[in-house]
Amino acid sequence: MMLKIKKILTALCAGLTLVSINVCAADKTANEKLPQQCQRLFSAAEQLVTEAKNQPGTHTQLNKIQNKLNQSKKQILEMEVATQIKSCDHGLAKLYGLQKDQEETN
């Protein structure tokens, strides 16, 4: 179980990095609402971090992962809505794919 969470958190961190890369071309006002895709992605990410906190041996990377998650959220808020949707859809697809792979191997 601990190895599963470590793999998912590592993949999530990598996925959030991909989402963050799209920021360079983005321009967005901060007062627009975050799309549902991004809300679901960040909710899933927060849930994984919460689960990892309860697993022995994962706490050493939690601060780094939480900081990356917070940084990605901030960057996504700066994107155009269309870019937010595309990026978060991509992140959700990666996350769900990893979760499905983990379920199949267990």
Quick summary:
The protein is built from four helices and no strands. With 106 residues, it is mostly helical.
Structural write-up:
With 106 residues, the protein is mostly helical. The chain is 77% helix and 0% strand. The chain is built from four helices and no strands. It has helices spanning 2-21, 36-53, 59-77, 81-105. Helix 1 runs parallel beside helix 3 (59-77), helix 2 runs antiparallel to helix 3 and helix 2 (36-53) packs across helix 4 (81-105). The longest helix has 25 residues, at 81-105. The chain is globular, with a radius of gyration of 14 Å.
Which helices and strands occur, and which strands form pairs?
Blueprint: H1 2-21, H2 36-53, H3 59-77, H4 81-105
Helix pairs in contact: 1-2, 1-3, 1-4, 2-3, 2-4
Please count the helical segments: 4
Q: What's the total number of strands?
A: 0
User: In which range does the helix fraction lie?
Assistant: over 70%
The helix/strand series, from N terminus to C terminus, equals: HHHH
The description of the largest β-sheet is: none
Judged by helices, strands and strand pairing, the structural class is: mainly alpha
Please tell me what the overall shape is: globular
Roughly how many Å is the radius of gyration?
14 Å
Distance between the termini: 9 Å
Uncertain segments: 21-31
Sheet-strand content, in percent, reads under 5%
Q: What's the overall average pLDDT, rounded?
A: 76
Signal peptide: 1-25
Organism: Alitibacter langaaensis DSM 22999
Protein name: Recombinase XerD
InterPro entries: Uncharacterised_HI0310
